[in-house]
């Protein structure tokens, strides 16, 4: 039974990877040169899906909340930032090298850490390897400054803490949020877009008074993470909360809880939620010499706030969405594949088609409907390639929630056929009602 389940999971993963490449969601990085391990590019539809998920996150966690401030900081930062944060000293993974074939592995990911999983040769004793990408800034080797591509986003928000205080005058509790790139020189990138060397993170640092009841904030953020994941189409029945035991938490953490998801390759971390205390601000205050304090107006005392950090990888979220929304209907050659995206995150909101592409009246009408809807909703597809059945299958496979067909009845009574992706149900809608019909169902 276990072998059968694993086979089904492997097949599902292969189908998702194939669909992503074939339909323009995800491409292997630098593919025409043979690829570059641990890198992937977002294709035309993947870019739209990614953007819609990021917009959803901003709307849910930032836009509709009080005292939340969105920033967009640089990838390159002063090297002292990474000394203060502890990354230079502590951001390491154990690695071992095979004495026989020379392959390198992350030791803690190998079931038997003594022997090579590729050739069975003897592995070296694990050594620590710093995961940060090192780079140099400057015109010559003599004057160049050695720094790093940021391995996380959090420090950007701590470094800008004072700037936000001075420019926005917030009062606790408040948050500083960001969506942006991070880089880690992963020894063993794996599982498609799950473990990458270049990835994107959505997170915010939420600053609270040291005496505030942080447990209530923490529990609420955990509930909100689950709620938001359900909104973007993640199957919440496949989520599991995992609290890190004390001996496995980061040194600064009072509490850390991950939401793990049942990916086809195993139950793995999807979101994180950590209580970071005042560790980061204290360290940056010490290393920079700048005061990173706030004034308690009730007591007149100064304090360094504590921090709660909800975080999620964009790439892992998209993979969880793909795994949750991939559906098959029917058997054999008649199997219909469709992506059951919530309409708000679907790359295209609808597709407009003329019943026949060689009938000028139908084509002209269809293009007018397409242009009108595009002005209202933005990403609307136009498809006249092949017969209607093939167009439906093509749009189903990329997750388009509604297909709108202009036929001969349209020319008589100004109604169109609207087909629902999930049910296959078709209904006649007046063209004048089309925008409201879509607005009610898309919920952008």
How far apart, in Å, are the first and last alpha carbons? 42 Å
Number of strands: 23
Fourth-level CATH superfamily of the largest domain = Bira Bifunctional Protein, Domain 2
The low-confidence parts are none
Shape by Cα distribution: globular
Total count of domains = 2
Q: Helices and strands: which structural class?
A: alpha+beta
User: Roughly how many Å is the radius of gyration?
Assistant: 25 Å
Task: Describe the largest sheet.
Answer: 7 strands, mixed
CATH architecture assignment name of the largest domain = 2-Layer Sandwich
Q: How many H/I helices?
A: 13
CATH topology of the largest domain: BirA Bifunctional Protein, domain 2
What proportion of the residues form beta strands (DSSP E)?
25-35%
Helix fraction, binned, reads: 25-40%
Mean pLDDT: 95
What's the arrangement of strands in the largest beta sheet? Answer: 3-9-10-16-13-12-11
CATH class of the largest domain: Alpha Beta
Compile the SSE list and pairings.
Elements lengths: L1 H21 L3 E3 L11 E3 L1 H20 L4 E3 L8 H7 L1 H4 L1 E6 L6 E3 L20 E4 L2 E5 L7 E5 L4 H6 L1 H8 L5 E10 L14 E11 L5 H18 L7 E5 L11 E9 L2 E12 L1 H10 L5 E2 L6 E2 L2 E8 H12 E4 L6 E4 L11 E4 L5 H18 L3 E2 L5 H10 L4 E5 L1 H6 L1 E6 L5 E5 L3 H9 L2
Parallel strand pairs: 3-9, 19-20, 19-21
Antiparallel strand pairs: 1-2, 4-5, 4-6, 7-8, 9-10, 10-16, 11-12, 12-13, 13-16, 14-15, 17-18, 21-22, 22-23
């Amino acid at each position: 039974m276990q072998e059968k389940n694993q086979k089904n999971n492997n097949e599902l993963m292969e189908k998702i990877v194939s669909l992503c490449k074939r339909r323009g969601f995800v491409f292997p990085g630098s593919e025409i040169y043979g690829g570059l391990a641990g890198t992937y590019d977002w294709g035309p539809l993947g870019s739209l899906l990614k953007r819609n998920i990021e917009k959803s996150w901003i709307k849910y966690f930032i836009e509709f909340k009080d005292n939340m401030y969105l920033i967009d900081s640089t990838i390159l930062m002063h090297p002292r930032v990474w000394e203060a944060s502890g990354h230079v000293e502590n951001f390491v993974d154990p690695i071992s090298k095979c004495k026989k074939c020379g392959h390198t592995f992350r030791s803690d990911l190998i079931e038997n850490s003594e022997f090579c999983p590729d050739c069975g040769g003897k592995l070296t004793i694990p050594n620590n390897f710093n995961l940060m990408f090192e780079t140099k800034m400057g015109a010559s080797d003599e004057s160049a400054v050695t720094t790093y591509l940021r391995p996380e986003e959090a420090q950007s928000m701590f470094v800008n803490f004072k700037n936000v205080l001075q420019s926005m005058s917030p009062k606790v509790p408040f948050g500083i949020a960001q969506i942006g790139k991070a880089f880690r020189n992963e020894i063993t990138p794996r599982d498609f877009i799950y473990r990458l060397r270049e990835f994107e993170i959505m997170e915010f640092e939420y600053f609270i008074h040291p005496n505030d009841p942080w447990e209530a904030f923490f529990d609420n953020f955990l509930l909100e993470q689950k709620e938001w994941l359900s909104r973007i189409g993640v199957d919440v029945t496949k989520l599991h909360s995992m609290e890190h035991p004390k001996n496995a938490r980061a040194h600064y953490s009072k509490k850390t809880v991950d939401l793990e998801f049942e990916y086809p390759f195993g139950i793995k971390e999807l979101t994180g939620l950590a209580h970071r205390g005042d560790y980061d601000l204290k360290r940056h205050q010490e290393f920079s010499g700048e005061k990173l304090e706030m004034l308690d107006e009730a007591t007149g005392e100064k304090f360094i706030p504590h921090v709660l950090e909800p975080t999620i990888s964009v790439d892992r979220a998209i993979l969880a969405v793909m795994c949750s929304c991939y559906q098959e209907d029917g058997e054999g050659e008649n199997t219909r594949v469709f992506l059951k995206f919530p309409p708000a995150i679907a790359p295209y909101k609808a597709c407009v088609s003329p019943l026949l592409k060689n009938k000028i009246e139908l084509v002209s009408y269809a293009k007018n409907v397409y242009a009108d809807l595009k002005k209202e909703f933005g990403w609307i597809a136009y498809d006249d390639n092949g017969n209607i059945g093939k167009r439906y299958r093509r749009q189903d496979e990329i997750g388009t929630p509604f297909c709108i067909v202009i036929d001969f009845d349209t020319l008589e009574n100004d109604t169109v056929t609207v087909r629902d992706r999930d049910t296959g149900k078709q209904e006649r809608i007046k063209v004048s009602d089309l925008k409201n019909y879509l607005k009610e169902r898309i919920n952008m």
